[in-house]
Amino acid sequence: MPPGKVLQPVLKMKVDELFLCWLSESSTQAMLRDCLRRIQMPERGAGDAEQPGPRLAAAAPDPAWRPRECEGPGAPGPTPASTALPVGAASSARSGPPVRGPRRSGGTRVVQTRKEEPLPPAASRSIPTFYFPRGRPQDTVNIDAVITKIERTFAQFPHERATIEDMGRVAKACGCPLYWKGPLFCSAGGERTGSVSVHKFVAMWRKVLQNCHDDAAKFVHLLVSPGCSYLVQEDFVPFLQDVVNTHPGLAFLKEAAEFHSRYITTVIQRIFYTVNRSWSGRITCAELRRSTFLQNVALLEEEADINQLTEFFSYEHFYVIYCKFWELDTDHDLLIDAQDLARHNDHAISTKMIDRIFSGAVTRGKKVQKEGKISYADFVWFLISEEDKKTPTSIEYWFRCMDLDGDGALSMFELEYFYEEQCRRLDSMAIEALPFEDCLCQMLDLVKPQTEGRITLQDLKRCKLANVFFDTFFNIEKYLDHEQKEQASLLRVRGGDGGGRWGMCGGGGTERLLGDTAPCSACRPQESDSEGPELSDWERFAAEEYDILVAEEAAGDPWEDGYEAELSPMEQKLSALRSPLAQRPFLEAPGSLGAVELYEYECGDDDLPPS
Ligand SMILES: [Ca+2]
Ligand SMILES: [Ca+2]
After folding, report:
1. So what's the pLDDT on residue 569?
2. How far is the CA of 306 from the centre of ligand 1 (A)?
3. Keyword set for this entry (predicted)?
4. Cα–Cα dist 161/403, whole Å
5. Residue 215 and residue 290: Cα distance in Å, rounded?
6. How many structural domains compose the chain?
7. What is the reported pLDDT for 489?
8. How many A from CA of 332 to the centre of ligand 1?
9. 275 FRET partner, CA 20 to 30 A, in 60, 189, 385, 512?
10. Is 423 a member of any domain?
11. Domain end position, chosen among 284, 311, 338
12. How close is the Cα of 348 to the center of ligand 1, in Å?
């Protein structure tokens, strides 16, 4: 491409993706570190010692040594791909070799003088393949043997055609997890004709095996629409509908068809919340590969109790989110406005923050957003972020909200803007608030930003106490909660001497939220009473809320003990689910709301600009 020509959005995205992939290779990073080290330390050896970076200043020299520039003495053989890439990338796009590595002294001159020099073609020919968007090819896969196995399976079906019910056996013949059956069926065109022929299926699967070399690549290929390389929300609908239709843990949902779409919407939002780390609305192979999603899909097969799969599929988690929304959405049109959302958790969240959520900083529903409303899909993001402020997505969510000017850092002004309302609210509760300066002091001590006066996303992710930080600025209830826990732990540490409380000491001192000796209760591992892995804040919240909701239902219609005692544990679990479900009024929601609701993206919206 000629220099100066603007890249088309799709192409640009591809190039960015390629660049990021290259940049994240460990060999690239080793090479860059090496280059950096050599910039910082004048090279020892040969005659270069007195003249750091002389080769840069010599801007138009012999092209023969130029491509080796980055390799240097310190980075020999083992990283050929990464050292070669800049050369290879340039050969197609620009007319001269780029001088990577040290640029400090001669950057502009290099750019000017490299016009006429063509790249030595030999350099690019020796670049080994280093980028495998569809996984690394494996020599061990015997495609013909797999195909034979599939044909043998199809031979058992009438007319060698498989219906969706047969697809479990076909998935196993393919060596796939059971719940890939839906995508396999759809990808072979089954949903149009009701069944797939052996020929069509084998042709489809052969192509997948030839082109896709790992599970992530295969799964993406099966779900995407033709010609697309990333997953959008809609792509998950047929897969999830099949899970709803056939997973034993969701059998009780079968008759409640109007509920399927709500469950599917919730799971899709949770998938994008966790997997789509780029916030682009497009899940790439690389993102899928980095996530635990496919492991969870595989677990669907082994785990009959879907509530054990708390990361994406739990019905209980869906139930909690939907009930919370239902409480706020009083007219049940599946949209809520700022007043509705403010009622969440008894007005715990500040008005300023509610306004920011509706400003479009983190929501995607462009159409409804204009009318000052957010959708159920947006609410899923909100609730998970609100109840677990320690995950990367959640920290990004609240950071976007607090970064009023969108400059990528929280300034003291932005902190004061939010804290001011907290003070007023504490006042109205007759609690003396800490002056902003003291609060700031505590927070800076807690976050320890790398640059003074600016708190970045990285600072918050690193500090492990982002929840305490955020709650201090916009959630009065949780702020007081943290404070109470902190006080209790300080009292314990000090042997109960009753010494000054931190926090609400009323401006007298600037006692720190986190002393050097006493880790905050929020960051200490919870003294859990059960074995097994520690629950996340979200999992703990969902489990507690679910118990409360079920108890509320039970109070309305008490179970007879004798009846319940006869049920197996599994049946009890299902009854517990059925009971509230059957009684919740939203079961009678009009059918028109049954469509899966997805949040909207602007076209080519790669990076959400905070407004
Ligand atoms: Ca409403
Ligand atoms: Ca800012």
Report:
1. 45
2. 30
3. Calcium, Metal-binding
4. 57
5. 12
6. 2
7. 86
8. 5
9. 189
10. yes
11. 311
12. 20
**Are residues 304 and 360 both part of a single domain?**
no
Q: Are residues 281 and 147 both part of a single domain?
A: yes
Give the end of a domain, one of 256, 279, 311.
311
Is the same domain home to 295 and 337?
A: no
Q: Cα of 423 to ligand 2 centre, how many Å?
A: 21
Q: Is residue 217 part of a domain?
A: yes
Q: Which ligand is nearest to the CA of 329?
A: 1
The two structure tokens encoding residue 83: 């050292």
Spatial separation of the C-alpha atoms in residues 171 and 189, rounded to whole Å: 15
- Residue 275 sits in the same domain as residue 399: no
Q: Is the separation of the CB atoms in 96 and 117 below 8 Å? A: yes
Task: Give the number of the ligand closest to the Cα of residue 376.
Answer: 1
Do residue 461 and residue 368 come from a single domain? yes
Could you say which DSSP state residue 161 is in? E
What is the whole-number distance in angstroms between the Cα of residue 370 and the centre of ligand 1?
15
Nearest listed ligand to the Cα of residue 403: 2
Residue 298 domain flag: yes
Task: Give the distance (Å) from ligand 2 centre to CA of residue 458.
Answer: 14
Do 339 and 306 belong to one domain?
no
Ligand positioned closest to the Cα atom of 339: 1
CA of 394 to the centre of ligand 2 (A): 18
Question: Distance, CA 471 to ligand 2 centroid (Å)?
Answer: 18
User: Is 449 part of a structural domain of the chain?
Assistant: yes
Domain range enclosing 481: 329-491
- The pair of structure tokens assigned to 321 is 């989110």
* DSSP-derived secondary structure letter, 430: T
Whether residue 175 is found in the same domain as residue 299: yes
Question: Helix (H, G, I), strand (E, B), or coil: what is residue 275?
Answer: helix
CATH code, 405: 1.10.238.10
Q: Are residues 386 and 432 in the same domain?
A: yes
Confidence at residue 125, expressed as pLDDT on a 0 to 100 scale:
63
CA of 251 to the centre of ligand 1 (A): 30
Ligand lying nearest the CA atom of residue 399: 2
Cα 326 to averaged position of ligand 1 atoms, centre (Å): 9
Residue/partner pairs of 7-13 with CB below 8 Å, 24 or more apart: 9/604, 9/606, 13/606
Query: pTM (2 decimals)?
Result: 0.69
Instruction: Give the residue among 306, 311, 293 at the shortest CA–CA distance from 533.
Output: 311
What is the 3-class SS of 233-258, one letter each residue?
Answer: HHHHHHHHHHHHHHCHHHHHHCCCHH
